[in-house]
Every structure is written in structure tokens, then in C-alpha cells.
Amino acid sequence: MVNFIPLNALRTKISFPAIRVKIISKWSAKIGGDHHSVMLLGDENGVTIQGSLNFSIYLRNEIELKDGDWVEILNFEVGLATDLYRLTKNKYRIKFTESTLFSKIEPLNDSNFLCCANFRAIKRGLYHPKYCVGDLIAHQQPDPANIYNTFFYSMEFSLISLGFTHIKCVAYGALAHNLNAFWRSTTEDVVVCVLRLWRIEWGTGGFKYVTNLQGGSEILFDTDIPDI
Fold it and tell me: Where in this chain does the record put each Replication protein A 70 kDa DNA-binding subunit B/D first OB fold domain (predicted)?
């Protein structure tokens, strides 16, 4: 019988580890020179962890993994999280290998794994948020000369919390294009949104703005997540 381990009990020296998790989000990224499928995973207790699968490895049973899937995962490697920008506060990360087994299961709960950040704490430098929640209230048009350059195209906008604390945000690349398209299509003056997997940019004097990571960051609107 398989003994499934909660994510907060994972360690580096567990023989044949097994977990049940939801694939919160999934994207492609380059790690150590190789292309990987990177995943943000969460268990039924709300604990999250980063997982990665090298593109050169083929999944058994030709299973297709998608955002929102709940899966059982058996036999993988657990290592310390040493990335410059970590997707979660978990001290470990998971690496899937050729011996890893995936099986889709019924959802264990209906959690969307939102984690609200404290806007004042962000600006005061008290902690590094992985998820930001607030209202999209303004934006600034970027230089039109950069509109066809995906890498340099950027857009500034502001979030305001329920406590009326403002935070400056900068979106780059494809995410900026998507945000601009959404803003042009909406008729609302105030749009509720969630920034997922964005990072803090620091400068002289402290906080400058929050910005997206390449590949993993998302902007989710109230139409995407009815709970907000």
C-alpha cells in the first residue's frame, strides 16, 4: 500500500516518495541549460512546492498534465530550493525523473490556492510575497516604439488594496501585451485582479515595484477566479 506524504513532511532522504497534489499552474522554462516543464503544485492542506520535468523525459502512459489536474505522483527526487527567485516558501523542490509515475485522480478539494499578500508589508520590506491581490486601478501606456518588441515591451499600472495602499507594478513581454489587450477591451473603471508568482524589484532606498517572472507569472481577473 502506498503511503502518501503531505508536502510539509517531504525530506531529501525519503525512499520512494509519493504525494497527491493539484497542478496549480504549469509553464516552460530553461533550468541549467535544459528546457523543463515547471509546475506549481499544492496539496489538500494548502502547502505548495515547485516541481520540474526535463523535456527529454517522456511520461509513462503518455499522460497529459494540465493546469487544474489533481495527480498522484510516485518516485521522484527531493532537493533544496536554491533558486534566486523561489516560487514558494517551501525549502524543498521536486525533480521528476524517468522513474516517476503520474496518475490523475479526483479533486481532493476545490481550493484555488490564493495567498493574499499584505501591501504595507511589501512596501516596508518585511517579507517577499509570492502572490499579490488587489484592484487594478490605473495603467500607463508604454512607448509605442516598443510595441512590436516582445522582450522590451512593458506597461506600468497600480494595485490598491482594501486598505487603500497603492503598489506600483510593471509587466513585461507577452504579459504586458495581454494586460493591454484586456484593459482596452473592458468597460470597467476598476478591475479586480490577482498577481500570481510576481517578484519584488528593489532599488536604492528600498521597494521600487513588483514585476513578472519570465514564463511563470500570471494576471488573473475576477472573471477567471469567481472567488475574488
Answer: 6-103
